[in-house]
Amino acid sequence: MSGSKTGLERLREKIREWSEEIGPITPRMERDPGALEEFCDAAVFRYQAQLAIPPEYRVSDDTGMAPVPGEGMTVQRVVMAEEISAVDPAIVLAAPGPSLSGGAIEAMADPDQKKWFYSRLQERPTWTFFGLTEPKHGSDAMGLETTLTPSGDGHLELSGTKRYVGNAARADVGVVFARTRPGPLGVMAVMVDTADPGFKATPLPTLGMRGNQICAIEMDRVRIPPENVLGRHLPASRRGIWGALQSLSAFRPGMAGMAVGIARAAHDYLLRHRGELAAGGMERVREIGRRIEAGRALTLHAARAADARSESAGYLASAAKYRTSRLAEDVTREAIALLGPGARLDHPDLDRYARDARAVEFMEGTRNVHRLNLFQGIVQRKLSG
Amino acid sequence: MSASPLFGTSPTPSSTGVEIRDRAREQGVLAALELLNRSTATECPRGPGGHAVVPEPQVQVTAAVEVALDGGSLVALRAADVPESADEPSSEWQLGLVWLRLGISERLLENCLDYLGGRTAGGTPLLVQQMVRGQLAEARGDQIEVELMLAQGALPSLLADLHERITRTDRSLCRLLGASSVVETGPGQEAYASELLADVYSPRTAPEPKESAA
Ligand SMILES: Cc1cc2nc3c(=O)[nH]c(=O)nc-3n(C[C@H](O)[C@H](O)[C@H](O)COP(=O)(O)OP(=O)(O)OC[C@H]3O[C@@H](n4cnc5c(N)ncnc54)[C@H](O)[C@@H]3O)c2cc1C
């Protein structure tokens, strides 16, 4: 076994142990939405929040675990996402910290903005949000209609509606994408303080991924100081939609890790309940296990390509994201079928995995969109060998 | 449509099935389930595992799952919480349930047409995207086959397969509805209710492992 493999295995074990320490949090959050606060001090939450802050902006350097030698950040994030999601993806999605908006900050913020953003996040457990999707524009983010207009006194005003934005109602700060003028280069990203007048986020009750608390956001002339505009120091082609795509693609392998984790949760569940399976059920469970192995291999491959900044990275991330989301959806559905009539009622954990799996499909791009992207990789000969 | 034999032995006018399907398509799960129960004189049908799903019960029950729908809620009960009076449903009821689920599936397809017709990708409607067209065509093809099997009077051994097909079709339609299918007030909630009914009542054996096609 190579040294790096051992390091990764150790990371897996530690994250698994930390996640199992708190167990699935969604059922407790469903009973009492305030319950989330009590998990913030758990090691797995602290680790995630710390890890997502670039070392040069960390107040303390103690993440609770040394980086794995020989493996990049994306691989470590993938392993973390899988291990946590095998317990409950809400432990990732409901966690305070930079999350997706951190990706936008990394891609577009100047040093002063980074300092402001990251220090604010370290004062106390702080949630953030990433506002891109709109009621009429999801996959078609380029068509977004939220406006950012000068207010006449050097400030800007943000108006419009966002939809399905995770954690927005519990967040203190977030990144919102808005239009300053028509066309693909007319999109800018701004940091928004949710306490500012004119900003309102309302949770949307969902079937799955309830821990993520996706929200509808209404913004009515929210004042944005010029220093909160991201990418002012960058050429127009390097901010706005480009920045959004950068942040999303950096997180995509992690989303695939999450999908593998959900599939694995269902598989582990079947193994624990092997006595209740119909005849021939174990052969099916083994076959499911082999499909999960393949999904995990693809996800790690995509993560390593991302860490190596390979030209195939984006295409592999698309392949991993859509195939593992499909895997999670199929495996959770099959697991319910294997446990016989009424399994959704007698095995509420499986019901939750299946509902969560349905939602993963839409996070960070749908399977159609990723298949179209993978196709681009094929015709451009970026995926050979 | 002429009467067709059901399960070879008990004849039932398939027009009842069609009526239940239409009710589901036009008014949703709750209204169709009420019609199904009424037309088969069923009050609280017990699934093969002893569970039951009932439209908002009048008496106090311990719900394992409660699904809020247009016009009320659907309540799923674990075996231990199902009233003593519950009965195994008749074969008419079981067949009618597949008709109901077909209607809900067709309702989802209608939702998809509305949704996708009103959305664009790069300025062109999503309905024009070939991948989307193919997925809608697959879904409708599956629905037509299910309808034909039902109209022929499906054998009990086929019902599990028909339930499974409808579930797979509904999942592909939900994917076409984007994240709107994940919110409880959206069309995905009816699809979930329909799956719950299949989970409790399908006389199923485990389906063959297969990746969802689209
Ligand atoms: C749990 C959850 C968390 C989320 N968190 C966030 C968040 O934090 N921030 C945020 O901004 N958004 C978030 N989203 C929204 C998510 O990004 C969108 O749902 C996603 O981009 C898809 O958009 P849509 O739902 O509008 O689907 P649509 O874009 O309307 O897609 C509908 C259907 O059309 C297909 N389609 C679209 N374009 C094409 C094409 N060109 N060719 C073929 N088929 C196509 C899709 O595959 C899909 O099947 C979240 C969603 C969920 C479910």
Automatic annotation (TrEMBL), chain A:
Recorded GO MF terms: acyl-CoA dehydrogenase activity; flavin adenine dinucleotide binding
Acyl-CoA dehydrogenase/oxidase C-terminal domain ranges (all copies): 240-376
Names of required cofactors: FAD
Entry superkingdom: Bacteria
Domain Acyl-CoA oxidase/dehydrogenase middle: from-to ranges: 130-222
Family matches, as SUPFAM superfamilies: Acyl-CoA dehydrogenase C-terminal domain-like, Acyl-CoA dehydrogenase NM domain-like
InterPro entries: Acyl-CoA_Oxase/DH_mid-dom, Acyl-CoA_Oxase/DH_mid-dom_sf, AcylCo_DH-like_C, AcylCo_DH/oxidase_C, AcylCoA_DH/ox_N_sf, AcylCoA_DH/oxidase_NM_dom_sf
Pfam families: Acyl-CoA_dh_1, Acyl-CoA_dh_M
Keyword Iron among record annotations: no
This protein's record includes keyword Oxidoreductase: yes
Keyword tags: FAD, Flavoprotein, Oxidoreductase
Family to which this protein belongs: Belongs to the acyl-CoA dehydrogenase family.
Protein name: Acyl-CoA dehydrogenase
Organism: Thermobifida cellulosilytica TB100
From TrEMBL, chain B:
Pfam families in UniProt: Acyl-CoA_dh_1
Taxonomic superkingdom: Bacteria
Domain Acyl-CoA dehydrogenase/oxidase C-terminal: 97-154
UniProt biased composition (Polar residues): 1-17
GO molecular function, one term: oxidoreductase activity, acting on the CH-CH group of donors
Keywords from the UniProt entry: Flavoprotein
Location of the region described as Disordered in the Swiss-Prot/TrEMBL record: 1-20
Protein name, entry field: Acyl-CoA dehydrogenase/oxidase C-terminal domain-containing protein
Organism: Thermobifida cellulosilytica TB100
